[in-house]
């Protein structure tokens, strides 16, 4: 049994930021457990730029962004186990893991930070007719083939889903000489950042078809083509709108799922919308001493926000370890009238620090107001030029606002047109 103050599960940008913040706050014995062979997480294969604009004030590639945190970790005495799979977390915060060198290991922690990230939704989760020829894969898998392994998945490409990874791979495949025929999006709006739509599709003349999906794949050994169709307001294919497109590759960018198997095993309550844990403003779950941050908590669009959130979790874990994180009076937050979810889902009204509530909307809004309300009183109302599901938003709650609330209060965030 190895004894640590803090065990961080996951060595991506979230795990490293949380560990470094906890170290900065005075926590001595910290270990990061990462199942990949190197620290950095998914950033290692994201060779495009656009990272770090908010946090560092400059444009970096994914490996450059990760590299800065890896260097900081290496300058500390934080222990790191890579190529290590965490198998279980017990109620008493014993983390069981295994790797090739040490075999089975157990880490007794005072606090645990969950930073396992997320995975892509696979083809099996979709209702697409056809056999299983080669050439159908997630956009992230294609990204690894091209950027890490040096292989081209195909030459004629259709992309289903307009998430950020799909948009970025549309540009990447084009730059490598492939022909991207079309990007199809089931919803009437894109799921990616506006800047990615402009820089990855518009700048390269790649068409984006909204309210459109792939209904059938063709080919046995290798993909030969797909049939696409428009969908109605119930997201069902419209008869007569079918169109056959010849292609040898279908990339799927149809959503990300937080990796919360370990969270469920230890009994952490999950939010049904985010599929991540229910947390307070310090990102502590309903299991005392277990914190969550990054894409395991909610799917982020910018790694800069992952870093900021993980530093909050790292500070919260440090406060817990030192006995500074006391109980309090917690109230719920709730998204209504166009707001799909809010993180954190609960806040301590006895808090003395300013905090942010992060949220996403359920559709595209232009010229709408974001209204924060509690006990019938409007706390803030801010007009936004545009709100889109692909872009995370936030509102600020001040200590002065919290001081007016009581145990029966509830903070709501809504969209007013």
Overview of the structural elements:
This protein is an alpha/beta fold. Strand 7 (94-99) and strand 8 form a beta hairpin. The model has no long low-confidence stretch (mean pLDDT 95). It has helices at 13-24, 62-74, 139-149, 164-175, 194-201, 261-265, 303-321, 399-403; strands at 2-9, 30-33, 49-51, 60-61, 79-81, 85-89, 94-99, 103-114, 118-120, 136-138, 156-160, 179-185, 208-210, 212-218, 225-230, 243-246, 249-252, 256-258, 290-292, 330-335, 339-343, 346-348, 355-361, 365-374, 377-387, 393-397, 410-416. It folds into 3 domains: 1-120 and 256-326, FAD/NAD(P)-binding domain (3-Layer(bba) Sandwich); 122-254, FAD/NAD(P)-binding domain; 328-417, Immunoglobulin-like (Sandwich). It is 20% helix and 35% strand.
In angstroms, what is the radius of gyration?
22 Å
Average pLDDT score: 95
For CATH, the homologous superfamily of the largest domain is named as FAD/NAD(P)-binding domain
**Share in β-strands:** 25-35%
